[in-house]
Amino acid sequence: MAEAATPSPDRGIRIEALRKVYGHGDTAVEALKNVNMVVGPGEVVGLIGPSGSGKSTLLKCLGAVVEPTSGRMVLGQDVIYDHRWNITDLRALRRDKIGFVFQAPYLIPFLDMTDNVALLPMLAGVANAEARKRAVDLLTTLDVQHRAKAVPSQLSEGEQQRVSIARGLINRPPVILADEPTAPLDSERALAVSRILNQMARQFDTAIIVVTHDEKIIPTFKRIYHIRDGVTV
Amino acid sequence: MISLAGRDIAHAWGKFVFTGIGLGLLIGVTLTMAGVYRGMVDDAKALLDNSGADLWVVQQDTQGPYAESSSLPDDSYRAILGMAGVARAANVTYLTIQVSALDNHQAREVRAMVVGVTPDGAGHPGTLTLAKIREIAVLKLIGTRNRTIASMIVQQSLALGLIGFVVGKVSATFWAPIFPKYVLLESGDALRGFVAVMVICVLASFLAIRAALKIDPAEAIGG
What we know:
The complex is a heterodimer.
Chain A: E1 13-22, E2 29-39, E3 44-48, H1 55-62, E4 70-75, E5 78-82, H2 90-97, E6 98-101, H3 113-123, H4 128-141, H5 157-169, E7 175-179, H6 187-204, E8 207-211, E9 223-228, E10 231-232
Parallel strand pairs in A: 3-8, 3-9, 6-7, 7-8
Antiparallel strand pairs in A: 1-2, 1-4, 4-5, 9-10
Helix pairs in contact in A: 3-4, 3-5, 5-6
Chain B: H1 4-11, H2 13-50, H3 76-81, E1 92-103, E2 106-117, H4 128-141, H5 146-175, H6 187-214
Antiparallel strand pairs in B: 1-2
């Protein structure tokens, strides 16, 4: 059982009795039965469980791309879901409040690194020059500023993953969802990415939830949630 | 002032109309050939780039695997597998055929490409479409508006149409003086052709936009 942290008033995420049922009647599948999590600001927690345990469904609910069936989700002080979405513009919620880091970096192949990162604030209406400045600052923090003008195909997988972390952080979201972020990396690079996630969580006061099977990085989490058959234990 | 051109046309309108149609066909054929060429290159690149193969082994003195027929003995890959530095090798077959298909109970001929691969073996094709789906899903997931994605698709389509038209127009301009018949290229024809190409591109992009808007951002999250 994971030990709960206390989220600060405007950061962190709390999930209470979250449930998700796909389908109806005899064909209904209860992917999430009872998920409870609290992740405080500056904290990186691991979410592990076997295939089919509900990890991806949980990420999709947290990422506001799949609507839960019932339960409650609180992001900072905002109750974003309470048996129904309390937010009308889920796209803006994802853009401004949730960062995503994927198994593969999924950078936009025709944009350089600066614009890949600056794209999010640009989408939020920030002026191009300001967005690019913020992107370069973040790339510098992540030590990939020397590749700012390169396109994804010119970078190593480790460098691309750092850029995708920068993209996840650029709008200073209270929470980042990382889906198997170290899966394609060797041990050394996987541990480096894990260190970066921990450092960024503290520096930006962000709650980070890392879904992983990667045994190399599991010891780097201070807290781990296990999910089995749709229930966090 | 009377319109001399109008009078001349009215005097021999049939000749003018057929000349115009002939000229239109010339530009159309040029544009079509450019399109056919680009389509072939695109098809070939999609197949080759997405196969993930580092090296293609083809029949000697052929330009296979796509540009020319090329066949190898079925067990050649075993010999290649035995070479130092080769991690994976597998057979791949491409065959383009014309087949009859039923469409609303009407038989019609369609061109189809049959691709044969070893399941999960080297050379297993990905597709360009799937890669695009993931890209668009990521864009949607991180908060990109549908209209931004639609605008991107329309702009790309228009740019492609513009390039195709310029290539066709330039080709026709160079071709005209050496054509064994007097060819008069008028700017008005070029303008109408340009408008037609742009309209077709916009209509075609609607199909792509419809497909893009159906993509679920949840596809970006694995599992």
